[in-house]
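STRUCTURE:
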């Protein structure tokens, strides 16, 4: 009796070719091919989306500017331009647009300088790579949800994580939990600041000065050439010069990119000047 030769298992290439041939036969028998019918539908829908965007842009432009010829007039969809930014505000809390709330909250989790890169670039990049790899990891042709556990678990985890991070970012309270304000007791201790400088140091922390300047190890790292103010009093500029510089930085330092803080008012500028003249360094 002759021995039966076992059949070789078809390769993935052969399976893909057989599946494609079956698809073509099924389309020929019962339906229409993807090209050009589905592509035509996608093109029409894309045109509809573009027309809607153009229409909304035209309504926004006309309703905000045309009636009063004023770009700051609030139309149906909002003004063309917002009012000029006030660099002297102490109550404004910067927040991103809603679709960046998830990344905004990631920065709160990875708040240390060594881990900021991981929160802003590392995790989103890893998630994007996993998303790109998903079709290569799960190559089954079935569309039943119960038979695609990998795809379903990945989709549920992505939706839940994005929803939670977006919600946490939208409800985060930044006004009272400023990390800069939390450094005030340390500054007072390190700099041996007198009581007269306390209102100024609170104003300094809340006015966003550390966005550019460094103070006792906290700050923006000298953005745009902003000097370290830890021992600014050693320059003996005087209260009057400090106030003049805060009101019009270019009049004291020609070409200075620092904005004017005249909107704070003379009394609060004096508080800042007293604080700066009391900052003699941490040694």
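SEQUENCE:
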């Amino acid at each position: 009796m002759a021995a039966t030769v076992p059949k070789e298992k078809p390769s993935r290439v052969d399976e893909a070719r057989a599946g494609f041939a079956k698809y073509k036969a099924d389309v020929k028998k019962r339906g229409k091919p993807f090209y050009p019918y589905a592509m035509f539908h996608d093109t029409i829908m894309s045109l509809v989306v573009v027309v809607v965007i153009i229409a909304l842009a035209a309504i926004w432009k006309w309703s905000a500017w045309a009636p009063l010829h004023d770009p700051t007039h609030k139309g149906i969809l909002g003004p063309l331009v917002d009012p000029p930014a006030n660099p002297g505000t102490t109550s404004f809390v910067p927040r991103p647009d809603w679709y960046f709330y998830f990344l905004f909250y990631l920065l709160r989790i990875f708040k240390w300088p060594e881990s900021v890169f991981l929160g802003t670039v590392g995790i989103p990049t890893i998630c994007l790579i996993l998303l790109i790899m998903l079709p290569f990891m799960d190559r089954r042709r079935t569309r039943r949800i119960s038979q695609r556990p990998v795809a379903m678990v990945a989709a549920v985890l992505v939706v839940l994580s994005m929803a939670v991070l977006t919600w946490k970012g939208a409800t985060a309270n930044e006004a009272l939990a400023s990390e800069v304000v939390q450094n005030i007791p340390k500054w007072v201790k390190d700099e041996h600041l007198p009581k007269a400088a306390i209102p100024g140091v609170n104003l300094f922390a809340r006015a966003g000065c550390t966005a550019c300047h460094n103070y006792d190890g906290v700050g923006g790292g000298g953005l745009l050439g902003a000097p370290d103010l830890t021992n600014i009093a050693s320059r003996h500029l005087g209260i009057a010069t400090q106030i003049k510089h805060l009101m019009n930085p270019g009049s004291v330092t020609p070409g200075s990119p620092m904005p004017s803080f005249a909107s704070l008012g003379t009394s609060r500028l004096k508080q800042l000047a007293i604080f700066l003249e009391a900052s003699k360094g941490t040694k």
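REMARK: The radius of gyration is 31 Å.
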